[in-house]
Amino acid sequence: MSGHGTPIPMSSAKCGPLTGIANVPGDKSISHRALILGAMAVGETHITGLLEGEDVLDTARAMRAFGAEVTDLGGGAWSVHGVGVGGFAEPENVIDCGNSGTGVRLIMGAMATSPITVTFTGDASLNKRPMARVTDPLALFGAQTVGRAGGRLPMTVVGAANPVPVRYAVPVPSAQVKSAVLLAGLNAPGQTVVIEREATRDHSERMLAGFGAEVSTEVTEEGRVITLTGQPELRPQVIDVPRDPSSAAFPVCAALIVPGSDVLVPNIGLNPTRAGLFATLREMGADLSYENERLEGGEPVADLRARFSPNLKGIEVDPVRAASMIDEYPVLSVVAAFAAGDTVMRGVAELRVKESDRIDAMATGLRANGVEVEDGPDWWIVHGRGHGDVPGGATCASHLDHRIAMSFLILGMAANAPVAVDDGGPIATSFPIFEPLMRDLGAAISRSA
Ligand code: S3P
Fold first, then answer.
1. What average pLDDT does the structure give for the chain?
2. Higher pLDDT, 137 or 295
3. Residues 314, 341: contact at Cβ < 8 Å?
4. Is the CB of 201 under 6 A from ligand 1?
5. Buried b (16+ CB within 10 A) or exposed e, 85-123
6. Active-site hit among 202, 327, 357, 375
């Protein structure tokens, strides 16, 4: 239930080298899915390394409201006693998903094929975001929805009493939509098929298989065709959540632009559907290596080592990579400001409907800090100024968006004058230890009145 508190103005300033080890929190996408699938299994799922950010805590609260027993065992360990596929109870009150698009969209999918009625709401950011992308396919299962104009929250979903399976081609590259359809398919008889033209993060498919569902993916001319057999009995699991590459992006990018830095970010999940940023940074000339590469729980994992990279160059980012780094464009645009030449980012219309319009939020703040940016509906270009030549000095609006707030604080660590954000509060949604972690590495971050 983020975004309800008083704003927390923050700023960052130039600092000495960033050095040391950055233990970033658990993966947000995997944490949501572990709680939701745990709640849909029969018996006790045990989770370690859960991200205890507000987004995920809102999902934990929601799962309790649907009848699952969700217990915080301390130190990132949680247990979930699930109620089984089709076993959700009707919540007694409105489900508040706070800031989390992933939370609300996945939970809507999970309940849409049960005969219960649920009203969803969120904070000012979430209540602006489009939900039709999820309610359209859920209607095909037989669910009904009533929301505000433009398909916005608050919204009531009447789950289908007699759901039918669905074959659905996802019109936008979105793992949330794909996952909502798969979760709805769990309680429909027969086979539900989701087709995606561009590969998006595949944590749902992997975890569904782990819980014992029959799910297969075929790569065809249409794209990735994912087939799920409905009404399985999900078996509870032991899940160790890997650390979040999207959170790792912040200390990694900071190390690349702050002179003298050398930072190790251990145990980062490098699922290919998530690792596009790191490939892009290497193309820009980043001194970024993967150490101790290994497989853990079927997912590729490595320790990332990032060192100051004085000769970064702008590049044209391959649009094919967009889905695999969609959450990382804001912080990439900060690195691009310190690179020589232009960084061109195309095929990124989805950035306009995230927690904020991320192209607009970053372009406005970068311009205020002396960096030239051009933008259009689905593209933007950052005109890099090169190392040592980014003025800084401005206050930026974070628009209730954690990644915008963190990106501008990273900018301030290497700009010539400090950079402020109007509200760092949203950082707690995904990376609650951002501030102490960055400070331990040597960053100068402060809270201002
Ligand atoms: C997520 C999918 C992405 C991403 C979000 C997490 C997920 O959203 O931006 O932070 O866990 O499925 P879209 O599905 O809207 O692309």
1. 97
2. 137
3. yes
4. yes
5. bebbeebeeebbbbbbbbbbbbbbbbbbbbebebbbbbb
6. 327
Q: Region 197-201: what's the mean pLDDT? A: 96
Checking if the pLDDT of 1 tops 50, the result is no
Total-model pTM: 0.97
Q: Are residues 17 and 34 in the same domain?
A: no
What CA–CA distance (Å, rounded) separates 79 from 278?
33
Return the H-helix or E-strand segment holding 161. none
> Residue 122: which domain range?
28-229
The angle at the Cα of 292, spanning 289 to 295, to the nearest 5 degrees, equals 115
Q: Indicate whether residue 100 lines ligand 1 (CB < 6 A).
A: no
State the Cα–Cα distance between residues 216 and 206, nearest whole angstrom: 10
Based on the structure, what is the number of domains in the chain?
Answer: 2
Ligand 1 within 6 A of CB of 326: yes
Cα(100) to ligand 1 centroid in Å equals 10
Three-class SS state of 218:
strand
Asked, for residue 237, whether it belongs to a domain, the answer is no
CATH of the domain at 374: 3.65.10.10
* Ligand 1 centroid to residue 95 C-alpha, Å: 20
Q: Facing residues of 296 across strands?
A: 299
440: annotated active-site residue: no
Query: Would you say the CB of residue 429 lies under 6 angstroms from ligand 1?
Result: no
pLDDT > 90? residue 436: yes
Res. 2: pLDDT tops 50: no
Q: What is the mean pLDDT of residues 397-419?
A: 98
